[in-house]
């Protein structure tokens, strides 16, 4: 089963990912210290929650995977196509604006936060390299995951056919009707392929983030793609959903690291 209970915490893990030399997990919102509307395992530091509670929540999720706060490399997520390399923990350095991180350094925990956007985790078991990306509608239109694949190829010699990629819990198309600005951005970013990812649901056009990002990956030559198929808006007991909760919510965390 893709879910694992670690004490009071519940974590999703991709079944296709190798268990050796890899640590990963996407944590549900259960088991933390934050009150409503962030209840309870909120990892987002810019949504109004008490910073001390957020730090304790972060400590808990990292400890559940055998990692420490000092191991973290994270970024200021801005819905871009920027992907940066982590050669060590961020430490006291300021947050860089980016929506993808790649690394081949053991012991560095790549951390990102989500509440409807797609967590995309990339693993190269051949060259011991990893990556993580944050893809909402704008990151999908800008093809941030394509940039991540190419960055891993440039930096580590990763071949797309060797990658194993997981698309984690995020909003599904049936809960994601979009307006003209989003439709235009997707059409501009994905070109003639965009129609397949903009289904009509009732009298509205929706966006299928799962199929769009899987298509981008396949176009890059990635063959091994696991889609969690879990809609964050369908289950706000387990997941934060910006749309389903009208913006008053927290952020769940995705963590990926190579062991030493």
Reported for the largest beta sheet, the result is: 6 strands, mixed
- Helix content range of the residues, please? 10-25%
Low-confidence stretches: none
Count of DSSP-assigned helices: 5
Tell me the fraction of residues in β-strands, as a range: 15-25%
Radius of gyration: 17 Å
Mean pLDDT across residues: 97
Give the overall shape, derived from the CA principal axes: globular
Q: List the strand order in the largest sheet.
A: 1-2-3-14-7-4
Summing up helix and strand content along with how strands pair, one would put the structural category as: alpha+beta
SSE arrangement, N to C: EEEHEEEEEEHHEHEEHEE
Total strands: the figure is 14
Termini Cα gap? 26 Å
């Amino acid at each position: 089963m893709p879910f694992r209970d670690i004490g009071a915490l519940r974590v999703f893990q991709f079944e296709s990912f190798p268990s050796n030399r890899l640590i990963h997990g996407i944590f549900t919102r259960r088991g933390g210290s934050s009150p409503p509307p962030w209840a309870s395992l909120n990892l987002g530091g810019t949504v109004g929650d008490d910073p001390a509670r957020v730090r304790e929540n972060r400590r808990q999720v990292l400890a559940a995977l055998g990692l420490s706060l000092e191991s973290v490399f994270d970024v200021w997520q801005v819905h871009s196509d920027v992907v940066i390399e982590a050669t060590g923990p961020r430490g006291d350095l300021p947050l860089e604006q980016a929506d993808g991180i790649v690394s081949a350094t053991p012991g560095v925990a790549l951390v990102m936060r989500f509440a409807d956007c797609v967590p995309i985790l990339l693993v190269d078991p051949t060259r011991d390299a990893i990556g993580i990306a944050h893809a909402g509608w704008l990151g999908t239109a800008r093809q941030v995951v394509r940039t991540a694949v190419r960055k891993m190829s440039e930096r580590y010699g990763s071949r797309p056919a060797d990658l194993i990629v997981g698309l984690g819990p995020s909003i599904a198309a049936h809960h994601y009707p979009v307006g003209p600005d989003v439709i235009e951005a997707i059409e501009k970013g994905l070109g003639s392929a965009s129609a397949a990812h903009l289904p009509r649901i009732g009298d509205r056009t929706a966006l299928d983030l799962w199929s769009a990002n899987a298509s981008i990956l396949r176009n890059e030559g990635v063959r091994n793609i696991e889609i969690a198929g879990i809609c964050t808006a369908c289950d706000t007991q387990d997941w934060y959903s910006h749309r389903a909760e009208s913006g008053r919510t927290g952020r769940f965390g995705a963590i990926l690291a190579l062991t030493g």
